[in-house]
Every structure is written in C-alpha cells, then in structure tokens.
Write a structure and sequence with these properties.
Largest sheet: 6 strands, mixed
Distance between the termini: 64 Å
Shape: globular
Structural class: mainly beta
Strand content: 35-45%
Helix content: 10-25%
C-alpha cells in the first residue's frame, strides 16, 4: 500500500495464501502524484511544435501577464519558448479537489486594473477530467478567450473583483430563465481594453435545451463593436445542468478593438438557440427590447 495514497477498504477475501484485502485508491499525493501526472501527460520534449505555435500566439498578446501551466512538469518547456513569466500550477493531490486548487491559485492576485492571466492545460481531459481548475478560475476571474494547439489548451482570463456588486434586473426570458442581476465592472475604459461583465442567472424549472448567451456592445446605430457568444460559464454551466432556484454566475471579459472611437456604447444580453439562431423573447424587464436586455453602458475615453 503506497504511503502517499488515500485508500478505503473494499473487501477481504480468504485465500489459500491467507487473507487478501481489496483496497480502492481514492487520491495520491507528493511524489506519487508527480509520477502519476507524468504518466498521464505526454513527455514535454515530444511537443516542441505545439509549444512553438502556442508561444507565437502568446507573443501577440498586448498585455503580457502571468502564464500558469498544468501539469507543472510542462512549465519548463513553455518557459523555454517565451520570455513571459511562467509558473507551474501545483496542487497537493490528484484527482484535484476544490480546496487544493484554491490553494494553488493563490499565486494569482487581483489587481486594481484588469490584468491578463493565461492558463495552459496539457491533455486536459485526462489530467483534469472534472475541470476542477476552470471551475475555480471561473469563480474569481473573467473568461476572455481560448484556443487549442494539439493537446495544449490555452484559456485567457482577466483579473477582476471576485464578488462584484451586482445591480438587480429580474429580467425574464421565455421559459422562465431569469437574468436576476448584472454588472459592468469597469464602465469607463480605453480603446483596446477589456470590458468586464458579471451576470447572475436563475430558473424556476429545469431547462431542456442548451441555449447560448450573447453579450453585445453596440454603438448608436445598433452595430456591434465587440461581443461574446457562449454557453454560460464559458461552456462550464450548460443550461440543462442548472438546478432550479440555484443562481448561476456568468463572467466575461469582452475585448474592445484598439481603434474603437470614443463614445458611449450600450451593453445588451440575450439568449438564443445555437442551431437555429432564434432568440428567446423577453417576457419582463426594464430597459428591454423584444429579445434582449440592456445591462448598462460603457464609456470609451479617447486614447492617451
């Protein structure tokens, strides 16, 4: 029985050689965890092409912030391909649990100004099959974008308040889906900056279809200057998984183009069926149109 494994007894059998215990290993720690992760993830030296492509994409990002890598054994390979600060994301056990991930994410500090944080996963469906790390990140950061380079999954987040002050809306869409409250975290921004948006959803009844949410930033002519369209929680919280009566937090960082003219732009939120593109009607809500709800405005200042 490994010393660095958590185990529970399952059964004992009597055999010709004496009693035989059947034990289930529930988690591993320390050196055993490192060995297991090394077995689950590919050898970093076999992924030079993927890391070269990822590093090239990372070099185009304007605000070069911190990069976290999981499993930690791959941090050195990425660091060799980029001049940006790369840190291994180190938890104390596998499979991951929320407590160990929260402790590991203490290296991410919330700045007064929104700051870019990139997270790179290697063979994510195997090393973090329950998506514990993205679930924890979604509770404290704002999802911006994601991309894949073979087995490398890069997710970009923007730092912001973990518990933002939300304004009540109680806007109801058909089917009972309710946008209870929302907030534009930074209502005054510069061109090229991210706009941080926090939404809180709820439903009184189960939802059968996996609808998508859109957040559009529109000019006076109702033309979009920036937008995000996603399954809630950047894919982590599909609507059929919602528990009636339990709020769902949904956060995004929507990047404005660098050449957006100064002015005041309105932010709209709606729901649509991804296959048909048909939007759900708004049944009730202040400052709403037939198929979308306004959560406020963003003021873009002139570039310095």
């Amino acid at each position: 029985v490994p010393d660095e494994a958590q185990q529970i007894p399952v059964a004992r059998y009597e055999t010709n050689l004496g009693p035989l215990d059947l034990i289930q290993i529930t988690s591993v720690e320390g050196d055993l965890e490192a060995l297991l992760l090394a077995d689950l993830a590919p050898d970093p030296t076999t992924m030079t092409n993927e890391y070269t492509a990822l590093a090239a994409a990372l070099s185009t990002e304007i605000d070069a912030g911190l990069i976290l890598v999981y499993p930690p054994s791959h941090a050195g390979m990425l660091a060799a391909h980029t001049s940006r600060s790369v840190l291994p994301l180190t938890a104390d056990r596998w499979p991951l649990d929320s407590a160990s991930v929260e402790a590991a994410l203490s290296v991410v500090s919330v700045e007064d100004q929104p700051t870019l944080v990139d997270v790179v996963f290697v063979n994510e469906t195997v090393v973090d099959p329950a998506r514990v790390i993205p679930l924890a990140l979604q509770q404290q950061l704002y999802w911006q974008s994601e991309a894949w380079y073979g087995l490398l999954h890069q997710i970009s987040y923007i730092t912001g308040p973990k518990s933002p002050q939300l304004a009540p809306l109680n806007a109801q869409y058909e089917g009972g889906i309710t946008l209870e409250s929302a907030s534009i975290i930074n209502p005054t921004v510069q061109p090229g900056s991210p706009v941080l948006v926090s939404l809180q959803w709820n439903t009184p009844t189960p939802i059968r279809d996996s609808f998508k949410v859109f957040v559009h930033i529109l000019d006076d002519s109702d033309q979009p200057i920036a937008q995000v369209d996603s399954i809630p929680g950047a894919g982590l919280f599909p609507m059929p998984s919602w528990e009636p009566g339990r709020p769902v937090s949904d956060r995004y960082a929507i990047s404005l183009p660098p050449d957006v003219p100064p002015g005041i732009y309105r932010v709209w939120v709606g729901i649509y069926q991804p296959e048909s593109g048909l939007r759900l009607r708004v049944i009730a809500g202040v400052d709403a149109s037939p198929d979308r709800v306004s959560i406020g405005t963003v003021t873009v200042d002139a570039a310095p």
